Amino acid sequence: MAGKKQFDVDLALDAAMVQFWRAGYADTSLDDLSRTTGLNRSSLYSSFGDKDSLYLRCLDRYAARYGNRYDQALSCASEEPLRAVRAFFEVTLQRITDPDVPDGCLIARTAMAAPTLSPIIAARAIEALDFQHARLRTALNAAQLAEGDADDFAVHMTAVNQSLAVMSKTRASQKQLRTVIDISMSALSHALHARS
Questions:
Q1: Which of 45, 56, 89, 117 is the most buried (most CB within 10 A)?
Q2: What is the 3-state secondary structure (H, E, C) of 96-125?
Q3: What distance in Å separates the CA atoms of residue 24 and residue 98, rounded to the nearest whole number?
Q4: How far is CA 158 from CA 5, 10, 14, 69, 162, in A?
Q5: Computed over its alpha carbons, how large is the radius of gyration of the chain?
Q6: What tens digit of pLDDT does each residue of 114-150 get?
């Protein structure tokens, strides 16, 4: 039908997201995006706008996809906080070991490149990290950690989660990644037991 898009927008966004995730914003050209999405430049522009607009859509898609998984993992935090936080980290470990996606984290990659990116893209990455911190703080508050402790642990867990993604890029072993998580979980367990 005339005027109707002849491609799957979700598939094109996923392909662009993986390209950006693998190569980064600066090292992804419009030719790369055309090749991975199967769309010519004019179709890319008419469907998604400029490269910045497409990157923002990819960041939002990534944050929503994994954010939903993190939310589900943390949903039992009020009853089983240690299990919930460990499940939160499992979401990251599963992503890291998924052969269908690149190593690391698109948000972490974007945050590390923030000084060279447009202010809007840099702000979106910071917003995603802030949202992860808020989601952890809410879960830890539900576990009845003291407000200050909940915020401190949320900052720590956010940093640990991002470091797992960075470490995976350097080929850290699963054992090493799990050791990082275990030390954080031990500290959280101690704080949870100390509250009672």
A1: 89
A2: HHCCCCCCCCHHHHHHHCHHHCCHHHHHHH
A3: 19
A4: 39, 28, 25, 15, 6
A5: 19
A6: 999 999 999 999 999 999 999 999 999 998 887 789 9
